[in-house]
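FAQ

Q: What does a record look like?
A: Structure on top, sequence underneath. For example:
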């Protein structure tokens, strides 16, 4: 079997991916499907870190726009990511995958505190680390957390799952049938065209640290495994070739 293209990856998983067709919360069957896809990657001795969102349970920005104090709303969103992380951990361990949930906000009864060197050591021992609680600070999204953690742990790529969207488009393909998909894109192009791949802070962090990003639909076929093997799936966002940087 060919060797994986990446040996350490960070998977950015949206909260919405966990709710399936339910419209809210966590669908255990969907969580199990996701766990099986991650298990296939771990079986290749690929080290995996996961940053999970909380949008299936709580959206801090939406709540703050309706009058709630922003910091309080964001902290509530961080707690929602912990719920998702624990559900994902349970699904992974049902598949026989060893995991550790690590949180940016300490809660010793349910998870370890996030410590960079400890997280790296867990991955070196073959454990999947699920990084919850965002960055532990309000005003920072889980996209920014993914960019930050990927650099901290020395990941080679961010694999960004998009719920029911198979890449980056110039418009929303769910509402615009004429939307055009990009196979490759530079961070500068994404920022200039305001393509909303990630928030601007996250994109800038990836650009400055030369952290490539693959945006794809994880639930379609074996896309997660294909991305790890280096096959073309979704949209690659990077600084481009050295001649274009």
């Amino acid at each position: 079997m060919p060797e994986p293209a990446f040996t350490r990856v960070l998977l950015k998983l949206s909260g919405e991916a966990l709710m399936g067709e339910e419209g809210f919360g966590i669908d255990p069957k969907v969580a199990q499907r996701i766990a099986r896809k991650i298990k296939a990657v771990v079986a290749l001795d690929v080290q995996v870190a996961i940053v999970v969102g909380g949008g299936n349970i709580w959206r801090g920005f939406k709540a703050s726009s309706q009058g709630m104090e922003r910091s309080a709303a964001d902290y509530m969103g961080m707690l929602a990511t912990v719920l998702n992380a624990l559900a994902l951990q349970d699904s992974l361990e049902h598949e026989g995958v060893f995991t550790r949930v690590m949180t940016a906000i300490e809660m010793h009864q349910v998870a370890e505190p996030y410590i960079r060197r400890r997280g790296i050591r867990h991955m070196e021992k073959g454990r999947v680390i699920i990084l919850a609680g965002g960055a532990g600070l309000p005003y920072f999204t889980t996209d920014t957390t993914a960019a930050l953690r990927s650099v901290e742990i020395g990941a080679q790529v961010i694999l960004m799952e998009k719920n029911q969207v198979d890449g980056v488009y110039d418009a929303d393909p769910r509402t615009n049938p004429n939307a055009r998909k990009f196979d490759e894109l530079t961070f500068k192009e994404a920022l200039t065209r305001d393509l909303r791949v990630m928030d601007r802070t996250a994109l800038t962090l990836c650009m400055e640290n030369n952290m490539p990003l693959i945006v794809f639909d994880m639930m379609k076929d074996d896309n997660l495994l294909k991305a790890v093997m280096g096959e073309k799936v979704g949209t690659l966002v990077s600084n481009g070739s050295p001649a274009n940087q």
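Q: Is there anything notable about this one?
A: The mean pLDDT is 92.
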